[in-house]
Write a structure and sequence with these properties.
- The strands form 2 sheets. Strands 1, 2, 5, 6, 7, 8, 9 and 10 form an 8-stranded mixed beta sheet that branches.
- The protein has a single domain, classed as Thymidylate Synthase, Chain A (2-Layer Sandwich), CATH 3.30.572.
- It has 250 residues and is α/β, with parallel strands linked by helices.
- Helix content is 41%, strand content 24%.
- The chain contains 9 helices and 10 strands.
- α1 runs antiparallel to α9 and α6 packs across α8.
Length: 250
C-alpha cells in the first residue's frame, strides 16, 4: 500500500519521507509527497542537509536540481530562447561527464528526438498553456516524457529515474505530478524536489500563470544511507521545526 505525505514546502516533505522510509526497512513502493508551496524551503533544514551532503562527499543539492532545471542560466528578462540556446551550447561539455551518458532530464525536455526530428517539449507545453488560457481552458493536456523505451528499456541501472511529468491547469494555477521509477532519498530526492519547483516556476512565469501544487510519486523509494546516521539527521531537522512537520496518511 502506498503512503501519502502532505507538506507545506520541500524541506518538510523530504524530512517526513525519510522518516517514513526509516520505519519501512529503508524502502517502499509508491511513496507520494504533495507539496503546497514547491518554491519554498526551510532554510535551517536546507543548511543542515547541505553540510551533511558536503561532509559525506555526495553530489551537492543545487547540482542535482540543475539536472532538472538550470536556474542560473535563466532570466525572464532575457527570454527563454536564450536559456535553450545556452544549454544547447553547454551540452558539448555537460555530456562528457559519465553520469550524463544518457543525457540530463532538462536536455531530454528541450531536445526530444523522435522519427528524425527534435521537439522542445517545454516550449511545446508553454505554447499550449498560453493558447488554452486565451480560449477553452483544457486542464490535462500538458505531458513531458523522459523515459525512452528503445534506449532505456534494456538498462536496469544507470538509466533515468524520473520517467514522466504531467502538468495540470486549474484556476490559472500550474500543478505538476512527477513520476519516478526509482528514487534515492539521500543522494537525489531533495535536489529533485528543488529542481521540479524551479521548473514549475519557469513554465508558470512564461505562461502567465501561478505555481500550484507539486506531487512527487516515487514508485520505488530507497533510503541510500546508514540508518543510524539518517535517524540522527531526521531528529536534528525535527528539532529545528517540530510544529510544521507533515501529517502522514495512507
Amino acid at each position: 500500500m502506498g503512503k501519502l505525505i502532505t507538506a507545506d514546502n520541500c524541506s518538510l516533505g523530504w524530512v517526513s519521507a525519510v522518516e517514513h522510509l526509516l520505519s519501512s526497512k529503508d524502502d517502499c513502493f509508491n511513496l507520494i509527497i504533495e507539496i503546497e508551496k514547491p518554491m519554498m524551503e526551510d532554510f535551517k533544514i536546507r543548511q543542515l542537509l547541505d553540510k551533511f551532503i558536503e561532509s559525506s562527499k555526495r553530489i551537492p543539492i543545487d547540482e542535482v536540481a540543475n539536472t532538472i532545471f538550470p536556474v542560473s542560466l535563466y532570466s525572464q528578462a532575457l527570454g527563454r530562447r536564450l536559456l535553450y540556446e545556452n544549454y544547447e551550447t553547454a551540452w558539448s561539455s555537460i555530456k562528457l561527464f559519465p553520469q550524463n551518458r544518457w543525457g540530463t532530464y532538462f536536455y531530454r525536455m528541450i531536445h526530444w528526438e523522435e522519427d528524425g526530428t527534435v521537439l522542445n517539449q517545454l516550449e511545446n507545453t508553454i505554447g499550449k498553456l498560453k493558447k488554452t488560457l486565451s480560449g477553452k481552458k483544457y486542464r490535462s493536456f500538458y505531458e513531458v516524457s523522459i523515459y525512452r523505451p528503445k534506449r532505456d528499456g534494456h538498462i536496469p541501472r544507470g538509466s533515468p529515474c524520473l520517467s514522466h511529468l504531467s502538468f495540470k491547469l486549474e484556476n490559472d494555477k500550474l500543478h505538476l505530478t512527477a513520476v519516478y521509477r526509482n528514487h534515492y532519498y539521500i543522494q537525489r530526492a531533495y535536489g529533485n524536489l528543488v529542481g521540479l519547483g524551479h521548473l514549475m516556476e519557469f513554465i508558470a512565469k512564461e505562461s502567465g500563470i501561478s505555481v500550484g501544487r507539486l506531487t512527487c510519486i516515487s514508485t520505488h523509494a530507497e533510503l541510500d544511507g546508514p540508518k543510524q546516521v539518517m535517524t540522527e539527521l531526521v531528529r536534528s531537522c525535527k528539532e529545528m521545526n517540530p510544529s510544521k512537520l507533515t501529517v502522514i496518511s495512507g
